[in-house]
Amino acid sequence: MKIYLVRHPQPLVASGICYGASDLACSAQALERAAFGLLEELPQRLPMISSTLSRCERLAQILCRLEPTFAYKTDQKLAEMHFGAWEMQPWAQIPSHELSQWTDAFASYRCGGSGESCAQFVQRVAKRWHQSAQAGEDQIWITHAGVIRAVQWLSGQPHALFAALTAEPARCSDLAALLRPLRAADWPSGEVAFAQVQTWDWPLAWPQQASGQALPK
Q1: Distance between CA atoms of 201 and 119, rounded to whole angstroms?
Q2: Which of 43, 49, 164, 176 could be joined to 171 by an S-S link, Cβ 3.0–4.6 Å?
């Protein structure tokens, strides 16, 4: 299966601000410009799944208006990571000891005290990927840089980890222990451009799923 990963356009926020779950808007012009550009790259007639945050959903709405073969639904599992008390704070003003606690315990530390841990975030992205794979069809995701990086990281891990993350009930009650391979130094750090398409294939090293069937465990 292929997933066409699209990050939302640049939101209306100053540079250097920590934003994840905050529901920031994009300008109408940026959304329209992004949608027209994406129509040149995205295949028609594919299911589209959008983050619940408006900077993604508004883009999905415009794409569906411009191309009648598109239809979308939202899924909170594609929302950006929640940074807790760090949300909408300048990164430069977040206490350095808090950032060090995060990088030292990258899987388990809850950002901003009340936000998500990376383990929680990666698991929900994995669950969405699992649902998409079970559908047995290519999809378009309108989402965020963090989600795209989570997909990149997950695809480099053993299939057994992905299967454990998405099993119901979870195979490991200690999510942080399950995600012990998740280290700050290994998290993808490359640029994720706004309003561009990245095509992601099912990892070649993983077992192939059959259309409409559960993934092999």
Answers
A1: 23
A2: 164
Radius of gyration of the chain (CA): 17
Q: Report how far residue 11's alpha carbon sits from residue 64's, in angstroms, rounded to the nearest whole number.
A: 20
The per-residue pLDDT for range 103-127, each reduced to its tens digit, is: 999 999 999 999 999 999 999 999 9
Taking the alpha carbons of 197, 49, 137, 125 in that order, is the dihedral positive or negative?
positive
* Structure confidence at residue 28 (pLDDT): 98
β-partners of residue 140 are 4, 48
Question: What's the count of helices (H) and strands (E) in the chain, helices before strands?
Answer: 7, 5
Amino acid of residue 107: A
Token pair, residue 15, equals: 């540079």
Distance CA 118, CA 53 (A): 19
Nearest of 79, 148, 80, 82 to residue 110 by alpha carbon: 82
- pTM of the predicted protein model: 0.93
C-alpha closest to that of 77 among 135, 129, 125, 145: 125
Longest alpha-carbon distance in the chain: 50
Report the chain's terminal Cα–Cα distance, integer Å. Answer: 18
What is the distance between the alpha carbons of residues 160 and 140, in angstroms, rounded to a whole number? 25
| Residues recorded for the chain | 217
Residues with Cβ within 8 Å of 210's Cβ and at least 6 positions away in sequence, in order, are: 136
